[in-house]
Each structure stands twice: as C-alpha cells, then as structure tokens.
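4.2 Preliminary Data

To establish feasibility before requesting continued support, the project team ran the inverse folding procedure on a target of 203 residues. The structure was first converted into the token representation described in Section 3, and no sequence information of any kind was made available to the design step. The complete token record follows.
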C-alpha cells in the first residue's frame, strides 16, 4: 500500500464495532447516524481476551483484532465504572467483577455490598470510555479519544433502561439515574458520547 493511502483518515463507514454488546451498539448508532456501523458478531467473531490493566490497551487490542479479521476499519471501546471509594474498582474489570458470564444484576449486587458502608458525600464514581479507531489492523496512527461521566453511586437500583451498571449510576445534573434516561439523552451525556464527540473532532 502506498504511504499516502496508509495515512488517509477513515471514510464514513462501514466501520465494524468491536463489541457484542447491543446496548453499546444502540448508543453508538444514535450518535453516529451518518456512519454505517456493523457489529463484530455479524462477522462471526468472538470477543478477544482483554488482558491489560488499562482501557486504552484493551481497546487497541479489540480494534486491531476486528480490523484484521474483517479487513474493515474498526471502532473499539473499552469502558467501565470507577468508584472513588474503591480506588477506581471495578474499572477495567467491570464486565467480570462478579465473575465471567455473570448477569448485570450479579455485578451490581457485589458492588452494592462492597460500598454499603460508604457514606453519602463519598459515593462519587465515574463511567470511563476509551475509543480507538483503526483504519487497518496495522494502522500506525490509531485515533484515540476518551470520555468521562461523573456521577454518584446509588444504594439501590432505579429505572428499567440501559445496561450494566446504569441502574445504580445517578447523574446529579439531570437528577436522573442512567437507567431512567432515553437512549438519546444518555448517549449525549455519557462517557461514550463524550469520547465519540472527541473522536469526531479528530477525523
Ligand atoms: P467492556 O468495555 O466491554 O470491557 O465492558 C465494560 C463493562 O463496563 C460493561 O460490561 C458494563 O458492565 C460496564 N459499562 C460500560 N459502560 C457502561 C454504561 O454506559 N452503562 C452501564 N455499564 C457500563
């Protein structure tokens, strides 16, 4: 491939989202209306391991894996919930906090138990998202952006929407829990929305 071609920035799709999470896909679609987005599972791909201790390294692994397997530009996010009183846990381990293949309710229950003695005023937390877009698996210049959404950890679940830790994440600005928000509202406020806005300014 010619050098100029290698450094061209991505065209508006199709991009493959290196995720199997339909909740994330819905959020990305509502934010990337003009970009055709496909899920890695549509290509029969299983999720790769996420062995690293930083969001950015894991996102890069996922993006490169999917770009290599599909031959298409790949967008990967690595995200999680960091709780101040737990030194940032569960963090990169959010998806497996209560064990692999456990339902969201099990992760939430474990987190609520771990924070039962954390007082009001000390229940700050943040959703974090790192996004990586690679043009090709060996793209030497991945586009990388991050978004952070500060909130407070509730003591019990609220709302019926969203996924993951949404039912226990309270957004003080709107006075709503993430699981009480419409897709579009959450997508605009969220760590993913913020990371995506930052990514778009780079493209
Ligand atoms: P991964 O990015 O696929 O490794 O998974 C991150 C995990 O963090 C998810 O499985 C959720 O448990 C949690 N998470 C990330 N973003 C959100 C969100 O917007 N709402 C609720 N939970 C989230």
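Position-by-position output of the design step:
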């Amino acid at each position: 491939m010619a050098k100029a071609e290698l450094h061209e920035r991505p065209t508006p799709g199709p991009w493959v989202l290196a995720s199997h999470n339909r909740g994330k896909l819905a959020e990305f679609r509502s934010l990337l209306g003009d970009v055709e987005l496909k899920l890695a599972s549509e290509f029969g791909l299983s999720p790769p391991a996420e062995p690293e201790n930083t969001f950015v390294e894991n996102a890069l692994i996922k993006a490169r894996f999917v770009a290599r397997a599909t031959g298409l530009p790949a967008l990967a996010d690595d995200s999680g919930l960091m709780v101040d009183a737990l030194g940032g846990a569960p963090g990169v381990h959010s998806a497996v906090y209560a064990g692999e293949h456990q339902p969201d309710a099990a992760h939430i229950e474990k987190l609520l138990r771990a924070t039962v003695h954390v007082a009001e005023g000390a229940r700050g937390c943040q959703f974090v998202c790192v996004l990586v877009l690679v043009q090709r698996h060996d793209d030497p210049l991945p586009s990388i952006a991050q978004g952070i959404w500060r909130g407070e950890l509730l003591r019990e679940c609220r709302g019926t929407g969203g996924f993951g830790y949404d039912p226990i994440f309270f957004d003080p600005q709107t006075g709503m829990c993430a699981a009480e928000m419409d897709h579009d509202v959450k997508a605009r406020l969220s760590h993913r929305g913020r990371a995506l806005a930052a990514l778009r300014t780079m493209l």
